[in-house]
Amino acid sequence: MNIADGTVIASTHRRHRAAEFKKFLAKIDQNVPEHLDVHVICDNYGTHKHPTVNTWLAAHPRFHMHFTPTYSSWINQVERLFAEVTRDLLQRSDHRSVQALERDLREWVKAWNENPKPFIWTKTADQILESLGRLLQRINGGGH
Description:
Layout: H1 18-31, E1 38-42, H2 51-58, E2 63-67, H3 77-88, H4 98-114, H5 125-140
Parallel strand pairs: 1-2
């Protein structure tokens, strides 16, 4: 996901191995202009750190990997995109086969990219940290 403009590069794979992740990285490499760096934010799934992936990344220095801490997916804008897919496509459809689901996902991404909507935080980092501070005071206070 390009967080600046909301466009999405998507790929469906039936398996989630290093080979498929490398194919996805290659697709990103083909679709992002060469002069731009690519920052990939992903979870700590072993596939993302596999030696074959690391070898590919070493040959593509414009790619920079960032790994989210465990249990922090709530902060990831990709999770927000998945919520849109669920709301717009998955909750309102009936897929009779995996192929039909994959086709509909590709069509959904194509339609999304025709009018992409970047997700914009509505609070500043300071506001979020203040809110978390208040929560921590409540749950760590004398009543618990």
